[in-house]
Specification:
single chain, 251 residues, alpha+beta, eight-stranded mixed β-sheet, 7 helices, 35% helix
């Protein structure tokens, strides 16, 4: 009961200070690319510094983007994208770069309708929005939650932005008709997501890919049926906010 109460407090806190934003204009997409450059190029060094200060790649043309805005400062704190592969010749990043890591043939993305698969990727949280001591370690830049700092009974301590980004991605995917979702993530992030009921299924052995990352799978039924009640309220709030922004863009 305490954990659920704490989760309810998180939902209230999130909606008071943070807002999901669907990035569907050139100007908003530029904000996404700037956040990615700040985290992936300047902070983590995963990608080279770009002269224009924006990190982009070949998958952006087939992606949907979202950010989380910090209301008090009116600035964008983080971003995430879902990569789709609905057109002929398009692959998900996991298929192009980490296909060998998928050891579960039944859940290989090639088994499903291409219009119903996507990959969550390029999740990034700006350093200035990870001010707490427990959020200062390097992994928090890409959503990882410190196992040494959080436990199942301390849900009030979860980083709101990291959890919110995955819920934003889930909302975009579900409202876009996606049935099968993939992500390359650190195993400790997958484990910590279970605290809130987001149960990713491991598809294979972790590999070296910007750190130790493994292939994971989830679908809307797994997501919605396992989400804890308190965090379901957070998802509902995020979904309702995003739905009003997405209504005119989803065919």
């Amino acid at each position: 009961m305490k954990a659920n109460s704490d989760a309810q407090n998180i939902a209230a806190h999130f909606t008071q200070f943070l807002q999901p934003v669907f990035a569907d204009t050139p100007e908003l997409k530029e904000e996404v690319f700037k956040i990615r450059h700040n985290v992936y190029c300047e902070e983590l060094g995963f990608e080279p510094i770009r002269p224009n200060g924006m990190e982009t790649d070949e998958f952006d043309e087939q992606s949907m983007f979202a950010m989380i805005k910090h209301k008090p400062s009116d600035s964008y704190a983080s971003c995430v994208r879902i990569v789709r592969a609905a057109n002929e010749g398009e692959l998900l990043p996991i298929e192009k770069y980490c296909a060998a890591a998928i050891e579960n043939p039944k859940l290989d993305p090639r088994n499903f309708d291409r219009k119903e698969v996507c990959e969550i990727s390029r999740l990034a949280v700006r350093a200035e929005f990870r001010r707490r001591r427990t959020d200062q370690f390097t992994g928090s830049a890409t959503g990882v939650i410190s196992e040494h700092s959080y436990s199942e009974t301390e849900l009030r301590c979860f980083p709101f932005i990291a959890i919110g980004l995955y819920m934003v991605a889930a909302s975009m995917a579900i409202d876009s008709g996606i049935r099968h979702v993939y992500v390359m993530m650190e195993p400790r992030l997958a484990r910590s997501m279970k605290f809130v009921g987001i149960k990713f299924e491991a598809l294979g052995t972790p590999v070296e890919y910007h750190g130790t990352r493994g292939p994971y799978y989830i679908n809307p039924d797994i997501f919605l049926n396992n989400l804890t009640p308190g965090f379901k309220s957070l998802y509902d709030a995020i979904h309702d906010d995003l739905a009003t922004q997405l209504v005119d863009t989803i065919e």
